[in-house]
Amino acid sequence: MTLKQNKDKTPEEKAQETSWAEERLGFPLESADPIEEEPLEEDTNKK
Amino acid sequence: MIYFTHMKPGREEILELGIARETVPAAPESLHYKNIEQAVEYFEEFARSFRPQSGERATRTNMEYRTRAMEEFSAKTKGKIKEISAFPPSSEQMAKNACLLLGSHALITQEIVRENREMGTAFDKNHLSHLTEREYYARLMETVEFQQKMTRFILQYRNIPGLDMVMQRYWTAFQNVSSAFIKDPDFSGKQERGIERAVTASHLLEQQGWRTHRPRAKEDMEGSTDAYATGITHADKHIILALQFKPSVHAMPVVDIDVLYPFPPQPETDKDTWNLIANVKKHRIEKSDLPLFPVFMSVPSYRETPLIRKGTGLLASPASINTLLDEKGVHALEYAETLADMPTASKPKKRRIIYDAQAK
Kind of pairing, strands B211-215 and B19-23? Predict the structure, then answer.
């Protein structure tokens, strides 16, 4: 595989990648990068 | 003591330590999940409570009744969206999710409008069947916008446990409410599978190093382009793919990928694929060095394989790709990556200057 992997890209790199495509295509784009899960609530069974 | 979530409830013996540990039920407790679940509950309640006031006997064969009931539903849904938009900031995310889910009324509206046009049905002047071409196109774009937003929503929340189950509830509620208006008993299923298809294709590409995007404005949504994918090579070269997704035409649980470059001649393509290629060509004429290439993907659904999750279309696991992508698919994506090195700018034509050396 010759492409850079998404897990290795920083948020800034991803934003630049999107901006580059927007500038070339001529319209704004919305990416679908995964939202990280919020921390789970405290376990009530914890002693 | 070690405590785990996401495991089945019960007690486990840890023999080495001679102790038993309690496990908690596998209920996802993330804030994102709660916001999504509450939004789906909101939609379920709204869908359950809707009763058309059109006065006609409820029947799916009566076009006029169905049209008026749909208009009522659409108006009520828009009212609900307005109401939710005024929710307090603490409920902002839930409200945004609920507004998105309620946007599915555009699918029902579009289907009824399409049926009316097909039948050439003429009602009163303010009726949907009298839409101008521009108004019809605007409604179609609303439908596309909903599909794009829903696809993006699922992809963004792909890591939230329990997303499949809550989305299945959503589609069930959509099925229940849309069946009051739409003749086709598989209408809801088709809408669900269309969105899930886009999710499957996008999820697969993203696991292979591509990032998928949708146009932000509906004015930029071109009917034949379902999404764009960007990739960057290790040599820092960019590629953009214009993607079109269709249902798989065979029962194999395989995603077929066709990189349409060099551009095939028109007789070899169907109308939709030709429109995809034409859109790419239009962009490349405007910007001659644009590394934009059309790619067609035919995608199976959860009905053909458990490797695709019902309710979302997400891949069941990272290993799913090993089955969903056969050798041909792997080669197609490898070829797509090499397009970064494809020359795109056309050489300027040399002007031939003819002169007479003897001329004064």
Answer: unpaired
